[in-house]
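User: Quick one: structure for sequence A, then sequence B.

Assistant: Sequence A:
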Amino acid sequence: MKKLLTFVLLLACGSVWAQDVVRDSVAATAADTADNEENVIGAKPTPRSSRREANVLGAPVYYNQNGSLRGGDTAMPYRRPKHHYLNNLEERYHSIFAEGEVLRGNSDYAFGLNFTYLPKRWGAYGSVLLGARHDYLSVGPALRLSDYDSYLDWQLYGGIMFGGRSTGAEVGLRIATPQHDGEFCITSASMGMAIVGNHAFVTFGASIGVMAAIGATTLLFW
């Protein structure tokens, strides 16, 4: 009899405790979903009260092709971080360069073409020059000195030069404009120095666009 009475009392206490737990959970849920408790987990988001809150975390911000903020009152320049995944030298600069080149020295002079292929940081160049006494051929690597955010494309090239029966070396510097209309560059110029067979030479090169501008200027003032 005592065991039965004890079991009934324990069962009644358990029922009362379970009801208290359910009631507390319902009250907490009602409080969490109340609109006036926005800092509680589960609360409803507070509606935006002003348009000035447009640049909250997660809201998109758009820039035009000049890097200025769209919709802004003032044009503020924007530059991507240096290690941004969209920074690509292939998209920023030209890859193919062709220039008319002149070689001049005390012992000889020559005219020809310089061709360079520079897709990213490293590339190669070669030149063929037809001279009064000898013909010249040079070949070697080319290095782009400019980074993605540079305004001009600076390049360094150098290699072996052959002239007649002699062998020497050449080194030069090129400047070009960034890419606007494809991989082929029409606005570039270069200057270098070569030593072949104990004779020193200077070299000058210009692309199609630069030579056309020089020719037009010459005809204008002729």
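Sequence B:
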Amino acid sequence: MRNKLFDEFLIGSWVTYFDYGIMSQEEQMKRLVELGVNFHPFPFSWYDPETHDDLDDWKETDRLCQKYGVLYGLECYNDKRGTSEEAFKKHIEIAKEMSENLAVFHIFDEPMGCEVKMLGDWVRRYRAENPNVWPIFNLNPSSVSVRRLQTSYEDHLQAMIDAAGAENVAFLSSDFYPFMRDGSFKEYIFADMENIRKAAYDNGKIRTHAFLQAYGGNSCRMPTIDEIRWQAYAYMAYGFKALSYFNMVSPRNNGGSFTEGLIMQDGSIPNPELLAATGELNFELRAVGNEMLNMQTVHAYHTHDISTYYAQGVVETLPEGYYVTPVDKDRKFVITEHEDKDRFMIFNNSFTLSGKSEFYVSGVNEIYVFDPTEKKYKKCDYKNGILTVTFKKGEGLLFKTV
């Protein structure tokens, strides 16, 4: 069985389904596919009393995923952990009956420092037993306390890579939700992006994955489409190869934790325009992501300092005399340098500003920008060393030079 996990840019969701009594699994899957979702790490309704370990249920899920072209994850236990002998045995046995659309075993979420070695051992066991299906896990953001991680964030990432073995890590993955209900914005999200990018790159160019905030509750607020776009392209500017929503389908409201979302647990859609726009964005991201799938991000340079404490000494700023420089010194951008020297990305680091921008670009003859709608490069307005382009709020543009 061949694993398709790395064949294309993935758009997933942590929670993807609600009660099948409201809408069938197939109807829900079809709608999600129409919204650009091609990865279901948990292809079931989370809140059924069943333990999701019935072989016939998984065969039906596998059939639907083949029909609609969805990659999926196997998770047999309601606690969402595969780190037990019982879960391990069921995962391995059920996987033997599934198609190549089964891409991952989800085995753990957000390990503490004391759990790193244990998780690494399980990753190695899964890889040894079934090398065709990758075990995946998701890490804490840096905002959890050092006490919980028992080390710095950089060292936590390295410890996890060492415990699992870099060759066994499908994606170095983490979550970070920056838009707060009190109106604040956690700009130090960029420190996490850079720490993950660097750890992945320095350890054999491991692929990276992140979660996009798409919910509102006690502490967080529901983002706008511009803020969702901003999150996605920020991660892509740092070279991330897969993204998942938290969530396309909202979890159940738990004491006010999840009160706003794209699709609610009762099947309702609070903001149809936002859901439709998110679907359009997903196809755009997949087109750009597929173009960047085999590209490696070496640097993500900010044109302005990130002043927050956590980002100091971590986030890179644009070197003096760099060959791509914004004309307007007041606008904030991130300029991505790739191993492919004829490519670069410019990310509009604003979810409130859009419009035309100019950049000094030296040492090139012509510049082309990737059009995700037509999936091809188009010649840019580049005259007398100045590139003129138009950005949406929070948009990233991929360029090729000759």
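The CA atoms of residues 173 and 209 lie 5 Å apart. The chain is about 30% helix and 25% strand.

User: Thanks, that's what I needed.
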